[in-house]
């Protein structure tokens, strides 16, 4: 009986400790949930309401209890608070302004924590001018985006996107926006990056992202980018499999071929070109001094040493050719070619985007 009583006491203590741990864990989770930081509002913009007022707008920020509008003060040389907006507010009008003057704003979100406003970081700055219909300086109205190449690109190609700002409709045709500078951004930099000149560089990951240009007053325009790694196609839609040695190159040596094609696409060095060969002693020759050639040296060696035909690999900053000779003189051959710029006017047998094959039967 005594042992039973002692055992019940022990189990009771364990139960209480476990219960306390569970409750404590629950409180910790709640505390963590409540302490989730509030983010600054997105899509902040400013537009002219009248010749003496500007309207600042923003999107809802999750978990925010309100918003704080800041205006740049030249004397203080910083942004100062000018208005506190309620949770359901999405805009505010700054009145009694001077006509013909540029004003700059930022917006932050806040959350009430223990009776105090816990503020987010400030948003990006937006600026606008109050002006009359005949003013020479006005605000951006629309951004027109266009590209000098197709949006669907091969891996690590570059694309220059230009942006034209269309100014507000005024009677003065010579009017210009107070700033023609655009701020560029990518929705996913693992797919494509963009610099502040609008030059897009695709990365080594396939997918879709959006490139956005933002004007001085927050007006935005975005363009959809489909990044496809043509150096590593999942299939060959235009090829019926009728060329024996092309089939071997694209199956048995698939990864080696794709690694080499991808490598020269990524590096894109204007001064890099040449031909990989293997001499009678098994040495790879024909390439210049490339610092990181070790990345593909094993792939090159595997093809040159093991492929059934005499093989050479020509490469440049935009093209890779796998030449398979039926004899060492090259009087007859088959070849697959990868060209990043899709310039294959002399090749009739396209097997996939950016890939083509030619075949001359042995004589």
Topology diagram in text:
Elements (H helix, E strand, L loop, with lengths): L1 H33 L10 E6 L2 E5 L8 E8 L4 E9 L4 E4 L7 E12 L2 E4 L6 E4 L7 E2 L1 E8 L4 E2 L4 E10 L8 E2 L5 E4 L5 E3 L4 E4 L4 E8 L5 E8 L16 H8 L2 H14 L6 E5 L5 E2 L8 H13 L3 E6 L3 E7 L7 E7 L10 E3 L2 E5 L4
Parallel strand pairs: 9-13, 11-18
Antiparallel strand pairs: 1-2, 2-5, 3-4, 3-6, 6-7, 6-8, 10-12, 12-16, 14-17, 15-16, 17-18, 19-20, 19-21, 21-22, 22-23, 23-25, 24-25
Helix pairs in contact: 3-4
Can I get a quick summary?
The protein is α+β, with helices and mostly antiparallel strands and 363 residues long.
Which strand order do you get reading across the main beta sheet? 20-19-21-22-23-25-24
**Computed Rg:** 32 Å
- How many individual β-strands? 25
Count of individual helical segments: 4
Largest sheet: 7 strands, antiparallel
Explain what this protein looks like in three dimensions.
The protein is of the alpha+beta class and 363 residues long. It contains four helices and 25 strands. The protein has helices at 2-34, 244-251, 254-267, 294-306; strands spanning 45-50, 53-57, 66-73, 78-86, 91-94, 102-113, 116-119, 126-129, 137-138, 140-147, 152-153, 158-167, 176-177, 183-186, 192-194, 199-202, 207-214, 220-227, 274-278, 284-285, 310-315, 319-325, 333-339, 350-352, 355-359. The strands form six sheets. Strands 20-19-21-22-23-25-24 form a seven-stranded antiparallel sheet, covered by helices on one side. Strands 3, 4, 6, 7 and 8 form a five-stranded antiparallel sheet that branches. Helix 3 (254-267) packs antiparallel against helix 4 (294-306). The radius of gyration is 32 Å and the shape is elongated. The model has no long low-confidence stretch (mean pLDDT 85).
């Amino acid at each position: 009986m005594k042992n039973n009583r002692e055992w019940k006491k022990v189990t009771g203590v364990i139960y209480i400790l476990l219960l306390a741990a569970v409750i404590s864990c629950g409180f910790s989770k709640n505390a963590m949930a409540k302490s989730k930081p509030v983010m600054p509002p997105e899509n902040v913009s400013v537009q002219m309401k009248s010749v003496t007022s500007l309207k600042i707008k923003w999107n809802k920020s999750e978990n925010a209890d309100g918003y704080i509008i800041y205006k740049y003060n030249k004397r203080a040389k910083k942004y100062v608070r000018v208005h506190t907006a309620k949770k359901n507010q999405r805009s505010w009008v700054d009145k009694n302004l001077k006509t013909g003057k540029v004003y700059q704003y930022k917006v932050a979100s806040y959350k009430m924590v223990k009776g105090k406003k816990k503020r987010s970081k400030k948003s990006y700055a937006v600026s606008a001018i109050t002006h009359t219909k005949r003013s020479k300086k006005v605000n951006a109205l629309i951004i027109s985006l266009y590209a000098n190449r197709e949006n669907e690109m091969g891996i690590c190609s570059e694309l220059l996107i230009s942006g034209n700002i269309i100014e507000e409709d005024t009677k003065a045709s010579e009017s210009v926006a107070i700033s023609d500078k655009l701020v560029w951004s990518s929705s996913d930099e693992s797919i494509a990056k963009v610099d502040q000149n609008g030059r897009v560089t695709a990365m080594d990951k396939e997918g879709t992202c959006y490139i956005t240009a933002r004007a001085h007053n927050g007006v935005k325009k975005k363009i959809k980018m489909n990044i496809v790694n043509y150096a590593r196609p999942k299939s060959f839609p235009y090829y019926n499999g009728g060329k024996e040695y092309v089939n071997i190159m694209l199956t048995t040596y698939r990864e080696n071929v794709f690694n080499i094609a991808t490598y020269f696409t990524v590096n894109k060095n204007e001064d890099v070109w040449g031909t990989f060969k293997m001499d009678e002693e098994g040495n790879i020759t024909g390439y210049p001094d490339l610092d990181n050639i070790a990345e593909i040296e094993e792939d090159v060696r595997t093809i040159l040493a093991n492929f059934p035909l005499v093989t050479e690999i020509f490469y440049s900053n935009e093209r890779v050719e796998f030449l398979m000779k039926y004899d060492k003189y090259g009087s007859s051959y088959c070849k697959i070619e990868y060209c990043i710029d899709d310039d294959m006017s002399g090749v009739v047998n396209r097997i996939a985007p950016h890939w083509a094959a030619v075949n001359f039967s042995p004589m």
